[in-house]
Amino acid sequence: MNELQDLYREVILDHNRRPRNFGELEDPDRIVEGVNPLCGDRMTLYVKLDGDTVQDIRFKGTGCAISVASSSLMTEKVKGASLQESLKLFEKVHDMLTAADYDDSADLEDLDKLAALSGVREYPSRVKCASLSWHALKSALTSVDDKISTE
Amino acid sequence: MASRLEPRATATELITDIPSLRADFPILHQEVHGKPLIYLDSAASSQRSQAVLDAILHHEQHDHANVHRGVHALSQRSTEAYEGARETIRAYINAASSAEIIFTRGTTESINLVATSLGQLQLNPGDEVLVTGMEHHSNLVPWQMICERTGARVIPAPITRAGELDRAEFTARLSKRTKIVALTHVSNALGTINPVQELIAEAHEAGALVLIDGAQAAPHLKIDVQALDCDFYALSGHKMFGPTGAGILYGKRTLLDAMPPYQGGGEMILTVSFEEATFNTLPHKFEAGTPNISGVIGLATAFDYLSAIDFDALARHEHDLLEYATSELLELPGVRIIGTAAQKASVLSFLFDNIHAHDLGTIVDREGVAIRTGHHCAMPVMDFFGVPATARASFALYNNRDDVDGLIRGLRVALEMFS
To answer: In 3D, which of B310, B326, B325 has the Cα closest to residue B397?
Structure first.
């Protein structure tokens, strides 16, 4: 039970219940669709840029609590951030979710509420749920692709 | 336990005490996350009895050599066990000849074999392959692929909100253009048992050949291919308490004889020169390469295991579990059951308002309960019901009411967490 509460922390349950920045964006500069074929998660990310800054960002779709909360927390964090800061954040979250030798003391302060996602690394089958929106973000900011998949 | 290894002919009485069978499955007796394992994912892959594990190990430790090739003792023992397995399975499914039993990796390979080989023989532009709206991807994608190559079309017969085949719509879609009907005996995502005998007769009247996907039927229902009069029947060992990577394709001999080989290689030839090859007779024509010998032997042992069981008693046991699980589940707030057919195997797909199936799966796993979550390789079914995924509890002969109680306990933890 304690381990489960480490995955489903209050912040995650809250962002799943009331996702922030949920919905479409009028006149976005970038739209990226992300799918996780294994669980059927689908999300669309809308990004409005102002020069080098993420002026606005919203998402919609269906997914599990981890995926929805991760998307919601992400939009909250990168809204108003520079492209460079956002991509750096992607790397940090990616490390937090997957790096074998990750030291959680290093980035916790920077990551702020996103640190709530650190419990996911103990659940390998759920890492893709948490990282889907972040891969969509990276794609949106680097204009690689307008469709991404976790598989 | 030894008595269950004996073939049907020498068994004096069929086993009616279904709950006693649980003791035969060693994997079930363990803890997961500190809780007793409750395995409710047999529709994805079932567990093996000690008898099956022993048969595989015995072959590997004493008899293994390649089949149909050597003159030495081990090769002969291996060949006898392998061909003996074919005869065991022929008798179980009541095929007319052991030449009609083709060993494959499983249902998926069996269907690909028929789609590719029969398809290139039978399908022309404008022809149709009729499937149902509840097929597993493995009984849909191979037909899409061969239709792409031949100019034929895949036509889906829709299902109802209960998850049953819409019989009128099925009939309406049968025509002179229908060359092949490919349908599942039991739906993996919904549990629906199709009235395959009637559907086969109807398809035959329309002049179509029929393939039955029996992957989910084999662990629950007796199979008699001559009584069904199906043209092809595909099943997987690992869904019916046998090993992975071993399954069969049953096909009527006249059809298999007329069909070109699926794969080329050793075993499936009579003579080979640089100019041409002549092909071996059935069933070897369709078994290119060294087969999964110990897997096939384990598979035959799984058939032996099932043939010692009274299937009426098994049906009562599984029906009781399904009814009990369904009524207990419906006590929980916000639950929705997907698949409410009148005739159902012990497969229960469900979801809750505001809790994604994936979260349910993770939470009940921590309670020791293994269920499947996702689209169950049946995305068209998920689309039809407008859900991205469901949670699925599937019950096999080794499950009991305690397992249902454990599932409900786990789901209550999830409900509390997400309340």
So the answer is: B310
